[in-house]
C-alpha cells in the first residue's frame, strides 16, 4: 500500500497497516493476542521444532485436502505449503477477520484458501469448496478455553470430516485435548515439545480405516 493510499484510510485501519509494515507477522500476532488472549492462546508463534514434529506423521504424497483451524498469521501455513502436492488444496479457517485479511494478503498461493468462519462448521466449509472429506486437520485453537460444548462440537465435526485413515493434529498448552478427543477418535498418539514458548503437548487423533495408518510415538 502506498503512503497516499494509507493516508486516505480511517485512523484505526492506518494504525493496523503501519503495525503490519513495521512489525510484520509477529506484530500482528502479538496485537491479536492482547485483544483476544483466550482465543489466540500464546503471544509467541510455534517454534520450528514444534512444526516439524506436528507435521511429521502426514503422508504428504496422498494429501488432497489439508485443513487448519486457527492459522493466525500463518506460522504453519508456509510449512504446510512447502510440503503440499501441487494439485492439493489447503483451507485455513479462522474466526478472526484480521488474521484472515493478513493471510490473504501475504500468501499468494493458488492452493491456499483462507476462510473467515468457525471450525465447528468444517463439514459445511469443505463441502462448499467441493470436497467430501479432509485428509488431515491441524488445530492450535485453545480448546480448553472455548465456550461449553464448542470444543466437543469441533471434535465430533472433525472426525466426521476426515477420510478413513486421516488424522486430527492438535498442539496445545494443556493435556485437556487428550480427554476431549479420545472419545471420538479411534486412536490418539501423544507427544511433547519443550522447545516452544510455552512448551506444548502434541496430539494425533486417528480415524480408523486407512492403509497408511501406523502407530506413532513421540517424546
From TrEMBL:
Q: Which Pfam families match?
A: Methyltransf_25
Q: Which UniProt keywords are given for this protein, alphabetically ordered?
A: Methyltransferase, Transferase
GO terms assigned for molecular function: methyltransferase activity
- Give me any GO biological process, just one: methylation
Tell me where in this chain the Methyltransferase domain is found: 67-166
Q: What is this protein called?
A: Phospholipid N-methyltransferase
Gene source species: Blastomonas natatoria
Amino acid at each position: 500500500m502506498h503512503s497516499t493510499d494509507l493516508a486516505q484510510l480511517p485512523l484505526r485501519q492506518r494504525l493496523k497497516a503501519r503495525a503490519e509494515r513495521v512489525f510484520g507477522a509477529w506484530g500482528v500476532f502479538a496485537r491479536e493476542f492482547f485483544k483476544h488472549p483466550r482465543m489466540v492462546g500464546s503471544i509467541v508463534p510455534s517454534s520450528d521444532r514444534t512444526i516439524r514434529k506436528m507435521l511429521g506423521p502426514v503422508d504428504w504424497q496422498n494429501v488432497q485436502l489439508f485443513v487448519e483451524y486457527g492459522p493466525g498469521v500463518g506460522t504453519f501455513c508456509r510449512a504446510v505449503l512447502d510440503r503440499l502436492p501441487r494439485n492439493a488444496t489447503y483451507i485455513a479457517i479462522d474466526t478472526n477477520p484480521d488474521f484472515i485479511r493478513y493471510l490473504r494478503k501475504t500468501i499468494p498461493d493458488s492452493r491456499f484458501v483462507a476462510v473467515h468462519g468457525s471450525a465447528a462448521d468444517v463439514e459445511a466449509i469443505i463441502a462448499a469448496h467441493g470436497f467430501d472429506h479432509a485428509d488431515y486437520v491441524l488445530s492450535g485453537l485453545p480448546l480448553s478455553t472455548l465456550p461449553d460444548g464448542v470444543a466437543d462440537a469441533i471434535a465430533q465435526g472433525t472426525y466426521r470430516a476426515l477420510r478413513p485413515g486421516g488424522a486430527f493434529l492438535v498442539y496445545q498448552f494443556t493435556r485437556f485435548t487428550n480427554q476431549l478427543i479420545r472419545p471420538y477418535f479411534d486412536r490418539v498418539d501423544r507427544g511433547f515439545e519443550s522447545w516452544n514458548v510455552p512448551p506444548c503437548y502434541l496430539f494425533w487423533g486417528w480415524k480408523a480405516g486407512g492403509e497408511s495408518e501406523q502407530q506413532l510415538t513421540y517424546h
